[in-house]
Amino acid sequence: MYTVVERELELGLVLSPERSIPVPARLTYRTNDPYAVHVTFHVGSDSPIQWIFARELLVEGVFRPCGDGDVRAWPTRVDGRSLVCLSLASPDGEALLQAPAAAVSAWLERTLRVVPPGSEQQHLGLDKALSDLLALAPGDELRPGGAGSEESPDPGA
Predict the structure, then answer these.
(1) Are 111 and 117 in contact (CB under 8 A)?
(2) Residue 34 phi/psi, 5° resolution?
(3) 3-state secondary structure string across 116-154
(4) What pLDDT was estimated at residue 149?
(5) Is the pTM of this model over 0.85?
(6) What b/e string do you get for 6-22 counting C-beta neighbours within 10 Å, with b at 16 or more?
(7) Residue 117: its pLDDT value, please?
(8) Phi/psi class of residue 116: alpha, beta or left (left: φ > 0; alpha: ψ in -120 to 50)?
(9) Residues 23-55: pLDDT tens digits?
(10) Predicted local distance difference test score (pLDDT) of residue 151
């Protein structure tokens, strides 16, 4: 079982320095994927657009510019409002989005309370997965002539 922390909010898709349009979005954090944040953009289609990137990138982007490549984040102020900018690039194009810094920070704070930084690995379930993988299934016992035996089967058998 895992915990989900979600937040619906409206982002601004920047079209020009003077113009942006609202884009409804959902921020999602799952404790079974503790290093990642999922952002789903609802842009009026039957197929929402989803981006997944490091939670640490968004945490850092609230305070200072960070990121390389496809996802970058940085804080800014526009008309006296504190915002977090997200630059997303894909083969289909690029987008610059602005999110209210207070809403993003509050949501991130909730994720950090659920899974504090540095404790993510404890939530991956790797120990259980590895032990399940290595466990012998019933009927897989090693026995003479069975799978894993070094003895050769009888010729003609």
Answers:
(1) no
(2) -70, -15
(3) CCCCHHHHCCHHHHHHHHHCCCCCCCCCCCCCCCCCCCC
(4) 43
(5) no
(6) ebeeebbbbeeeeebee
(7) 82
(8) beta
(9) 999 999 999 899 999 999 986 667 889 999 999
(10) 47
For residue 49, what are the contacts with CB-CB under 8 A and spacing of at least 6? 40, 41, 43
For residue 97, which amino acid is it? L
Residue 57: partners with Cβ closer than 8 Å, 6 or more residues away: 66, 67, 71, 73
Query: Which single residue is written with the structure tokens 């640490």?
Result: 56
Using 70 as the pLDDT threshold, list the residues of the chain that sit under it: 43-45, 119, 123-157
| Whole-number pLDDT of residue 129 | 57
pLDDT of residue 64: 97
Determine how many CB atoms are found less than 10 A away from the CB of residue 101: 19
Give which of 75, 33, 31 is closest to 54, Cα–Cα.
33
The CA–CA distances, whole Å, from 77 to 51, 84, 101, 151 equal: 24, 8, 9, 74
Instruction: Please answer whether residues 97 and 88 qualify as being in contact, where contact means their C-beta atoms are separated by less than 8 angstroms.
Output: yes
pLDDT, position 42: 84
Q: Give the CA distances from residue 119 to residues 14, 60, 114, 123, in Å, rounded to whole numbers and listed in that order.
A: 36, 17, 10, 7
